[in-house]
Amino acid sequence: MTFLESLEGHKWQWPILASFVALYLVRMAVRYHRLRYFRGPWGSGFSKLQYDYKVYTGEAHAWCRDVNEKYGPIARIGPNSLITSSSNVWMHINTKPEYKRSKWYFSAVRVEHQRDHIFSQTDTRLHDERRKQIAPGYSGRENLELESSIDYRLLELLDLIRTKYLSDPSRGYINPMDLSKKIQYFTMDVISTLGMGRPGFGMLRADADIDNYIRSSEEGMRIANTFSALRLSWIAQAPVIGKLVCPQSTDVKGFGAMMGACFRAVDERLRDADHDKRRDMLASFIRHKLVGDELKSEVLETLIAGSDTTAGALRATMLYVMANKRVYVKLQEEIDRAVREGRVSGEGVISYSTAKQLPYLQAVIKEGLRVFPPVRNIVPKDVPVGGDTVLVEGKPVFLPGGVDIGFSALAMHRDKKVYGEDADSFRPERWFDANQGKLAAMMKVHELSFGHGRWQCLGRNVAQMELNKAIFERQLFRYFDWAIANPVKPWDAMNALGLFIINDFLVQVSAR
């Protein structure tokens, strides 16, 4: 018996069925009508399927850029969703307090079952309160061990390269090194040292992914990306089944095991809190009255966000430098000149304050973040209920209340109107060639690399310090020569929730 046949003899059910259909059609018509003035890909007025498919395939960052380039600085990507490539619009959205994080997206980036951290929190008041508690720990003012902790881990990375991975092409000895893994070990050891207040996971010392923490994290990101694309993220937060889906700190392997190690480290510090004299990130969190599960959640989030984003930036900029001989030579020349002139000591790790005084190094770092933004999720915000008017290229544009609007990092940081016709090229010299007006416009967009306003990345200072000290500081380029092992396909990369999972970045390292 068909569905329609089953309705025979129940004439009263037809009006109910018709009412539901009519209600659905009216709802779709209202949503379509509300954003009718915004252009977008075919079908975006009725479905977000195209965007979701690109999230599933890991191509959302490139697709969003194409959408903005084709349909304008604010374009439609779904019945209720917009995306912008305008830095002015995005700064406005991130500054005005009436805009809130969109729950459909940020709930998908929760790590624990029904527990928010600073990045997933959609309640603006709770977010701001938490930010006040943890922000001092990310700064050098309260975290006095910040720079020295990075230095220790960097020395371990240098020692690992010298003792195990040097090649000697002149003698025909090639010893490929997977730089993607070594960088991940470095950033994971740095952030676990800072976040847990001990010598970290020890991945560099072991030259291994301890307990498969990194692999498990990558697998988790892939799964979360698939769930997000299929609109199934709610399952992980469901009252009963969610506990079975989400990792648990009691797990003996995988991501849950990393959670357990993190939580045990926090418990150890709390037991000795009255006598603890350390001045690190965890001590700062505790001093600012962050306790219990909330403390553990923020430390865990620090490990995840602080490792993957910085590792992505380091890998990408290293690749671009190695692939561009002109940039490679100029960077080495600046480093060597600084040492000869005594601006940089001959031994030890360069200080952050000194690194910031090397102009070409700074241009290389800015250009790396511009060409390869390490975070490319659209991080959507909900427009206030009454709507809002923004300026796009000097013209007022009304955003209806209740819709969500995200941004395309790739479109914004490769905007030819800001960076010139060669915006897709890695050319650090653009930061010197520009006149004052153009340079100001470039810097304005560059500042958005780490977010803006109340949503700005708390780990910005840590990431910048690692960028300056690690790949581009004088040690790596003073003592080693670098070559890409496979220029045709230098690495395997996948976008998962806006973060890049990068593997098989094989390089040849030789002593200078």
TrEMBL record:
UniProt keyword list: Heme, Iron, Metal-binding
InterPro entries named among the record's database cross-references: Cyt_P450, Cyt_P450_E_grp-I, Cyt_P450_sf, Cytochrome_P450_monoxygenase
Cofactor requirements of the protein: heme
Binding site for heme: 457
Listed Gene3D superfamilies: Cytochrome P450
Recorded GO MF terms: heme binding; iron ion binding; monooxygenase activity; oxidoreductase activity, acting on paired donors, with incorporation or reduction of molecular oxygen
SUPFAM superfamilies with a match to the protein in the record: Cytochrome P450
Domain of life of the native organism: Eukaryota
Protein name in UniProt: Cytochrome P450
